Amino acid sequence: MAAKSDGAGAASAVRMEGAEGGGAGSLPGGSRRGGGGGAGPGPGSPLAAAPPAPRAYSLLDCCWVLCALLVFFSDGASDLWLAADYYLRRQFWWFGLTLLFVLLPSLVVQLLSFRWFVYDYAAPRAPGPAAAPAPAAGTKDSGCTKDSGRPGSALLSPPPARAPAPAPGAYRTRGCCRLCVWILQSLIHLLQLGQVWRYLRTLYLGLQSRWQSEHRQRHFYWRMMFESADISMLRLLETFLKSAPQLVLQLSIMVQQNNIEPLQGLSASASLVSLAWMIASYQKVLRDSREDKMPMSYKGAVVQILWHLFTIAARAIAFALFASVFQLYFGIFIVTHWCIMTFWIIQGETDFCMSKWEEIIYNMVVGIIYIFCWFNVKEGRSRGRMAIYYTITLAENAALTGLWYMYYDRQATSDFDALIIVCVVSSSFALGIFFMFIYYCLLHPNGPVFGPQTTGCIFKKAPAACVGPPEDVITSPPRSLPRTTGGEREGVPGDRDSCVPVFQVRPSVPPTPVARAPRTEGPVIRIDLPRKKYPAWDAHFIDRRLRKTILALEYSSPATPRLQYRSMGASQEVLEYETTV
């Protein structure tokens, strides 16, 4: 089967191999798996490793979702309450701006959420000549059948098994149920509750993954991870379109009026907590979805919330102080900073989306995030880029606060109060940097970043993490399959706790053939796309056609299938050698 990304035009081929037997067709690109005579991959090969069980949905996961719902409701309710208070006090200008920063971002997010629902719930197209079943195990590869509608694309829906035609009444019942679901979802999104529905659905799927049988547990866990990714993306977009400008607006009003109303403080605090929470939550869900990265602990997530809470607070207060005196220049500063940050992100050549224009829009949104806080968008060591960003941020905060201190209204604010405000900005930023160091020195998933690195294999007897999984193989949900060692390719069990040389001289006398065990693990779904590098989402998280097919195949298969992306690290000759010998 083959796939076409949602709205991207770039194609990806997907094929599902059988669970048992020998040579199972070919990889995209012509290289064949397995030898002749029905001999499958050996026990140590990537296709024969048993998939580890998915991480169990815990009570902490449930509490995290409930806290996220509490943050969402407190942020929205406090803003609406404050807007109503402005209206009752006939401060229509502040009422209009406050309400604008609530409704406009919410409408954008609801439209995007409903668009995702329409695509996920749309009835699949009837299979025609463009859809063909994958070749059975032990047969020659028939290739991926292309979609005749557009060159280079293909249908992604799996071919349904032949079944007796249902009774006419079943069609009417099914159509009535689908109509009810459409009406319910339309009503939910019209009431601006799409995020609430997705949070509750995530909670339901997570609990189901604990209560169901083993196979259905994996299926519900897959769906829960997909739903968590969706709500994380939606809420991150909403917070920086709504909470960030709302925070700066309310702080500016407080500075101008030289007075802090209880509702203003509540709204600003809720917006600040929402911003810090969503950055940490997004990073946690992203790491949980990536098998090639260690998951983030809840201690690390809490410390990351404190890190962003204090740095964003210092940034927002500096913005509000400067905007209370220089309204026009503040707008020029924000636009200039956004343009510079967006250009910096584009120059880094990110790879998050499935098309060029989606990538540009994504970079523009990340440019908005960079106005307030650090957000990693490129693979590799980020300490250099982070140091550059926080140096620029520190200089900007000092300049904005210093200009306000030079030109603020002495009659409205005393010198002592002004000095206290300056100290609050500097101490808040220092606290944020302190928690950042705590996170990277003690709670980073990969270990201490500023201490000795343990990611490479540098010891005679290295830990098991020394021999890492390949980047192009994902198992349920999703979990990686280990690479074969040199000894395992010769039929000898390898030592995974030792460093294996990359190049070995083969003996002149061929070793005694060792009978290979038949493949008893689940099927493998091959995706003809290179795997995106962290911190990008995997293609099966952002390409919804690919996601639908994986869920359908995973649900219909008796064993949990594994995902394998196209490897870009080896040349074609090496790939053919590894898959045929």
Automatic annotation (TrEMBL):
Residues 19-42 have a biased composition (Gly residues). One of its GO terms (biological process) is engulfment of apoptotic cell. Residues 157-166 have a biased composition (Pro residues). Residues 1-47, 132-166, 474-494 are annotated as: Disordered. Pfam families: XK-related. The chain crosses the membrane at residues 93-118, 300-321, 328-348, 360-377, 389-407, 419-442. Belongs to the XK family. This is XK-related protein.
